[in-house]
């Protein structure tokens, strides 16, 4: 990567770390919050015949993780273009 100066490099990494932190928070809320802490509340709701809390702990967290991978790739491509370090 060739940044214009150190200021651009710092700004790039700050935005990168901010994005990673936000995505990790989403993943934590879905996997730990919905799958463990709120499972009893969510089990009152049915989703395709399954209790919603069970669905989140078994499948929803995995689907969310895969979606976050695609969101990260999309956002990082945009960030790379913004700072001129794309391929």
UniProtKB/TrEMBL annotation:
Domain annotation Sodium symporter small subunit: ranges: 9-86
Pfam families in alphabetical order: DUF4212
Protein keywords: Membrane, Transmembrane, Transmembrane helix
The organism's place on the tree of life at top rank: Bacteria
Transmembrane segments annotated in the record for this chain: 20-42, 54-74
Keyword Transmembrane helix: yes
Protein name: DUF4212 domain-containing protein
Source organism per UniProt: Pseudoalteromonas qingdaonensis
């Amino acid at each position: 990567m060739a940044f214009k100066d150190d200021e651009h490099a710092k700004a790039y990494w700050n935005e990168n770390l901010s994005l990673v932190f936000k995505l990790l928070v989403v993943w934590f809320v879905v996997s730990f919050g919905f799958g463990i802490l709120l499972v009893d509340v969510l089990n009152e709701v049915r989703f395709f015949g399954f209790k919603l809390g069970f669905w989140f702990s078994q499948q929803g967290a995995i689907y969310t993780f895969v979606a976050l991978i695609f969101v990260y790739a999309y956002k990082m491509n945009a960030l790379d273009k913004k700072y001129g370090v794309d391929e």
